[in-house]
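Bench notes, afternoon.
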Amino acid sequence: MSTSEPIGLSDAPALGAMALPAGTYDGKVVFVTGGGTGLGRAIATEFARLGARIVVASRKPEHLEAAREGLSPLGEVLTVACDIREPEQIAAAFDAAEATFGLPDVLVNNAAANFPVPAEDMSPNAWRTVVDITLNGTYFCAREFARRHLAAGTPGSIINVGASYAWTGGPGFAHSAAAKAGVKNMVETLAVEWGPYGIQVNGLVPGLFPHEDMTADIQGNLARTNDKDVCQPALRVGRPRELGWAATFLASPYARFISGHTLVVDGANWQRRSLTNPPVVTVRDQMGKGPFEP
């Protein structure tokens, strides 16, 4: 007897489970930007569970402290202050990583900036800041990582954390969507350029993964839903560890022939479509803003 009642996608294995053999990253060094909180720390955590020594870079001292507290019980951790908008600070952070652990084998470009704003209200400074951190910072970190491996003649792996509106556009997030589109294109471009030198480049796009470092607007939306979210095709949200498992696979020996690919981990949410379109609600109305005033 069959039933057509929706059941959603199965939940993830328990916290602490590993997607790869124990010790997969023994002796490896993984450099994570923005790895002190949220999804960055979830990714760093899964690498650490598999034996990696972790380097976390952040410009916020409180995030570096959170990284030390959260990751030290799992293994060796180095935290370095770094504003990824500044190539000189990135070079200094990599110098510190090399002096402590050796040249990082994996770079996870997770750090980004974002906040919702109607495009007509966005200041030039807001646009420049988000693009500078999200797009320029990702490139500067990738370049520093690749230059060191090219000089050493060693292989490496880069994972750029992206967003699904790189494909679809993101009303209310014109600055971030444009920057993330650039990050996605960078994955495809650099994978071809650096593949001959043993450097793979992939992207990783998270769906809705509730965590402590989400922006206030997302937290507000979640407060009105629950884990079995009827707005998600999976009928649930993601567990941060699931994103970590995907990252550890992409940079692992088991995925060395995968390069130039962006893996979306969101339970098919970004591909959701309705048979009939709902009424259009402007971005201003969605944000509770009044008419535009110059």
